[in-house]
Design goal:
Layout (H helix, E strand, L loop, with lengths): L11 H7 L7 E2 L5 E2 L19 E9 L2 E8 L18 E8 L15 E8 L25 E9 L8 E3 L21 E2 L6 E3 L2 E7 L9 E3 L2 E7 L8 E9 L8 E3 L1
Antiparallel strand pairs: 1-2, 2-3, 3-4, 4-11, 5-6, 5-13, 6-7, 7-8, 7-9, 10-11, 12-15, 13-14
């Protein structure tokens, strides 16, 4: 596996999307990204935004793992989308860590967009077919539980001016994909990392070996809502509401060394 670059590649659309979070946030050396409280906003009327109001974001090495952490104002993971009963038009709530690593690091086609780790919940569909998160013997009914994904984000004005989507896979295309790709026509991976959610913290542990032991990369933090296209085709999964951005401008100021 090639050594990932630490160079930050942030699409212009990602920066435009970050404009929804106007607060000035700060980086404390060696202590993640600190963020102002009470600055989360929703363009779609999502309530109880304290669950998505970022106050601290970090990625650090701990032994053989990387630990991705977001701290919110209160009750992390307490708010999930309302069930609609249909895939088309359904919502996804997410805690996201965009990183400067090339998507090839986790098995996607190289240079295909911005790689991000996400902890998500969506009660209307299940995209972790290899895992039975609720332990009921059915691996296809637990999308409402918080679970993890790697995704590749790219700009697409079909999601709105300056907005992002999870990159689609066109019919007939055969891009490189991770072994735990869930079969959706998207650049999405379901690696099976169980998010740890307690109090005001969301934490995801990622084995270093699965990233090729990167020597250095950069990161940021985002909380957001995504929506499945009502016509269920490209663009299939759009970022429609950015609640908060750790840095305030998606400059990826956090550094893992």
């Amino acid at each position: 596996m090639p050594r990932p670059s630490a160079r930050v590649l942030v699409p212009a659309a990602l920066l435009l999307l970050a404009g929804t979070a106007a607060a000035v946030h700060a980086l404390r050396a060696g202590d993640g990204i600190t963020s102002a409280a009470k600055d989360a906003r929703s363009a779609t009327g999502v309530a109880r935004l304290e669950s998505f109001d970022l106050v601290w974001t970090d990625v650090e090495r701990r032994g053989t793992h990387l630990v991705f952490t977001e701290r919110v104002a209160r009750e992390a993971g307490a708010v999930r989308p309302t069930r609609t009963g249909a895939l088309a038009g359904s919502s996804v709530f997410s805690y996201v860590w965009p990183v400067s690593l090339d998507p090839a690091t986790v098995g996607f086609e190289g240079k295909s967009g911005t790689l991000a780790l996400a902890a998500t919940a969506h009660p209307d569909f299940d995209d972790t077919p290899k895992y039975d998160e609720n332990g009921d013997g059915d691996a296809s009914n637990d999308g409402d539980l918080w679970h993890s994904h790697w995704v590749v984000l790219v700009p697409d004005d079909g999601c709105g001016a300056g907005a992002l989507k999870v990159r689609d896979i066109p019919p007939g295309a055969t891009p490189r994909l991770p072994a735990t790709w869930p079969g959706l026509p998207l650049y999405i991976d379901s690696p099976g990392y169980d998010p740890e959610i307690s109090g005001d913290l969301v934490r995801v542990k990622v084995p270093l070996k699965e990233l090729g032991f990167p020597t250095e990369f950069r990161f940021d933090g985002v909380t957001a809502a995504l929506k499945v296209n009502a016509s269920v085709h490209d663009p299939l999964l759009c970022v429609v509401d950015v609640f908060d951005v750790a840095s305030g401008n998606l400059s990826l100021p956090g550094t893992v060394r």
